[in-house]
Specification:
- It is a single chain.
- Helix 3 (85-98) runs parallel beside helix 11 (280-294), helix 4 (109-120) runs parallel beside helix 5 and helix 12 runs parallel beside helix 14.
- The protein is globular, with a radius of gyration of 22 Å.
- It is built from 14 helices and 13 strands.
- The longest helix is centred in the C-terminal third of the chain and has 21 residues, at 296-316.
- The two termini are 42 Å apart.
- By secondary structure, it is of the alpha/beta class.
- The chain has helices at residues 3-17, 57-70, 85-98, 109-120, 135-143, 156-168, 195-204, 227-230, 259-268, 270-273, 280-294, 296-316, 338-350, 380-391; strands at 34-37, 40-44, 102-106, 126-130, 147-151, 178-183, 208-212, 239-243, 253-257, 330-336, 353-354, 357-358, 368-373.
- Helix 8 links the parallel strand 7 and strand 8.
- It has two domains: 34-50 and 296-391, Aspartate Aminotransferase, domain 1; 57-294, Type I PLP-dependent aspartate aminotransferase-like (Major domain) (Aspartate Aminotransferase, domain 2), CATH 3.40.640.10.
- The structure holds pyridoxal-5'-phosphate (PLP).
- Pyridoxal-5'-phosphate binds next to helix 4.
Length: 400
């Protein structure tokens, strides 16, 4: 082994020892509630395909048709070689769905955050993020060069104290731009941001808000636009962000907002400008997902998901807020120690249930957990089967 590989191997050994080793598991079936790994079938509680659209015939057909009409690849960045029609159709659908003047799509949600935050802010500005925002917003907040402040998770008093500090910086002739970034449904805890109060607060201090609706779009609100719709504040959120890879069943990320915002991003977002456009099939599939979410089937699937989540929470003993009208599809069971969480996940896998042990750096050290996600394609029997598997865990592993 050469010195390079020796050095990397030592680092990998440390990861293993800390219970932080990760590996890919090859999937030989489409995404769904039943998946096939190594010739074995598993009941899947790991996917963010909340409405069960990733393998839906309407999305498959839309993708196939786009390949027929527009080919497999996009050729270059959309600013370089022409911007394929499926992207424009997708953005028109998105803006109509979100009720915003405009929308722009990116290759992933991660690239969306990176391009948007770095386009909006520079070294003279201030960015304030919730402690638990997704890695893509943390990375972007660091990369943009603005002063970065972190407020305690969902703690508006802490946020306000930072806003007070930010405003006092406004003695210089050029008032700094202040951007607050939060998530509507937090990806590893499944809890909601106190959005209405947060919007009041940011308006009082003249700050902007970027809201990452990755786990709420397609699920929450009368038209399933997200938490901003549910809380009736959508027109007061400057930057609405989301992914096309979760409830919409496809792939890509988006920003919905004003025409000026979208035009600025087309001119300034480096992850948009300097990256080959996604394949047209992804755009067509995402658009089919959006259309489906808006229709009767979308409403039925969202309702079905709510009833499955209720049953899942009961099974996991986390039913405390089961009377709330809208539940998130993410149900975490805190374990704590990283190796214990791995042991839980392994024991469940031996019972035919597949789900991830979420560990550092996805969550803080010592707060490893099992993360159950429900989808509209799960059945009551699936949840019953999960309950049996949990009861059959070996006695050294308490039933979470
Ligand atoms: C998944 C996720 C993203 C990233 O979206 P991708 O399309 O998967 O890159 C961003 N923010 C949150 C909160 C997410 O959960």
């Amino acid at each position: 082994m050469n010195a390079f590989d020796q050095e990397l191997t030592a680092r990998l050994d440390q990861l293993r020892q800390d219970g932080l080793w990760r590996e890919l598991r090859r999937l030989d079936s489409p995404q769904g509630t039943r998946i096939c790994i190594g010739g074995q079938e598993y009941l899947n509680f790991s996917s963010n395909d909340y409405l069960g659209l990733a393998n839906h015939p309407a999305l498959r057909e839309a993708a196939a048709r786009a390949v027929q009409d527009f080919g497999a690849g996009a050729g270059a960045s959309r600013l370089i070689c022409g911007s394929l029609a499926p992207f424009h159709e997708l953005e028109e659908s998105l803006a109509a769905f979100k009720g915003t003047p405009a929308a722009l799509t990116f290759s992933t949600g991660y690239a969306t955050a990176l391009g948007t935050i770095t386009a909006l802010l520079g070294a003279d500005d201030i960015v304030i993020v919730d402690k638990l925002v997704h890695a893509c917003c943390v990375d972007a907040a660091r990369l943009c060069g603005a002063k970065l402040r972190v407020f305690r998770h969902n703690d508006l008093d802490d946020l306000e104290s930072i806003l007070v500090w930010a405003v006092t910086k406004a003695t210089t002739p050029q008032r700094p731009r202040v951007l607050i970034i939060t998530e509507s449904v937090f990806s590893m805890d499944g809890d909601f941001a106190p959005l209405r109060a947060l919007v009041e607060l940011k308006d009082r201090y003249g700050a902007w808000l970027m809201l990452d609706e990755a786990h709420a779009t397609g699920l929450l609100g009368e038209h399933r636009r997200g938490l901003a719709e549910l809380e009736s504040v959508a027109d007061r959120v400057e930057i609405q962000m989301g992914t096309l890879g979760k409830a919409f069943g496809a792939s890509g990320g988006y920003i919905a907002g004003s025409r000026a915002l979208v035009d600025l991003l087309i001119n300034r977002a480096r992850s948009f400008i300097f990256s080959t456009a996604p394949v047209p099939a992804a755009a067509a599939a995402a658009r089919a997902g959006i259309e489906l979410v808006q229709g009767k089937e979308g409403a039925e699937r969202a309702d079905k998901l709510q009833s499955i989540v209720r049953q899942l929470r009961q099974t996991l003993g986390t039913g405390a807020d089961a009377n709330t009208a809208s539940l998130s599809a993410i149900v975490p069971k805190l374990v704590g120690d990283e190796n214990d969480a791995l042991a839980h996940a392994t024991a469940l896998r031996e019972q035919g249930v597949f789900l991830p042990a979420i560990r550092y750096p996805t969550v803080a050290r010592g707060s490893a957990r099992l993360r159950f996600t429900a989808t509209a394609n799960h059945t009551e029997q699936d949840i019953t089967q999960l309950g049996v598997a949990l009861r059959n865990l070996p006695p050294t592993i308490p039933a979470a």
